[in-house]
Amino acid sequence: MTTPTVQDSPFWRRFFALYSLALIGVVGLIPALLNTFSGLLTRPGVPTTMSPLTLALLSLIQPAILAAIATAIGVALTPKLGLRSHIVEAAAGIPAPWQGFRREIAPALIVAAVGVAIVLGFDAATQAWVPAPVNIPEGEQGRTLGLTITGILYGGIVEEILLRWGLMTLLAWLLWRLFQRGQGTPRAWVMWTAIVVSALLFGAGHLPAAAGLYGGLTPPVLVRIVGLNSALGIGFGWLFWRYSLEAAMLSHASWHVITTLVVWVGQAIGQGNRS
Predict the structure, then answer these.
(1) What angle do CA 244, 241, 107 make, to 5 degrees?
(2) Which domain holds residue 10?
(3) CB 135 within 8 A of CB 229
(4) How many whole angstroms separate alpha carbon 84 and alpha carbon 258?
């Protein structure tokens, strides 16, 4: 009996298996959007007949469409490159698709923890050069539970589907077709180029929000936003290449959890020292 492969299963079955998860992640944006729109609508001179919830739901349309495009790209191209998703393999009927995922948990958590140390260490070392955010919306001060949930669901699921499953896969496939004529396994430099470029775009994608948050994009802000997010993206991209999409998702989501816990513990210690 021939062992089934991912490509033997219908495209749409694999697509909807992963896209259903993406939609859960898109819905995870709602807490952050509600905070943003609730604060915005209280400002004088901002007329609107819509509620914060209506505006939040309308804002989900664009990421839902982008996630659909990225999901389709990855479903079509990852089998050619040897990249994998346990969810897609399960939808394709691959036997024991989650076998070995336990071995991916440790490297995913290590990458997340190193990422937290890099970001918090950089922030602590550059307080004198990088300005503090000046336009933090009401309800978004600090690492709130709602924003952490948004980071877990949207960041951990949707951003990984957009940046790794979709963009990184597309870049790797283009380089593989151009320089290897679609033959053999993609060379390491092909994958590293795709990892780094997609990570840089991941970092640059945070600039519009950073511009509003910091009141402008000074060189220190650019270094912080693009540099740190790119470093995280490289770690997540490596996990996707060497392990699976789910390893990258787990690491990205864990980064938000660990960061929040570290910040909360630090705040608790600070309050204890002041009392």
Answers:
(1) 65
(2) 6-274
(3) no
(4) 26
Number of domains present in the structure of the chain: 1
Give the tens place of pLDDT for each residue, 158-181.
999 999 999 999 999 999 999 999
**Contact at 8 Å (CB) between 202 and 174?**
no
Task: Quote the pLDDT of residue 44.
Answer: 61
The two three-digit tokens of residue 259, written as one number: 């960061």
Mean pLDDT of the chain: 89
Cα–Cα distance, 202 to 222 (Å, whole number): 13
Residue with tokens 């982008």: 66
Q: Is residue 257 part of a domain?
A: yes
Count of all residues that appear for the chain in the document? 275
The dihedral region occupied by 216, where left means phi > 0, alpha psi between -120 and 50, and beta the remainder, is: left
Using 50, 70 and 90 to split pLDDT, how confident is the model at 86? very high
* pLDDT tens for each residue of 134-157: 665 544 556 788 889 999 999 999
Count the Cβ atoms, other than its own, within 10 Å of residue 63: 18
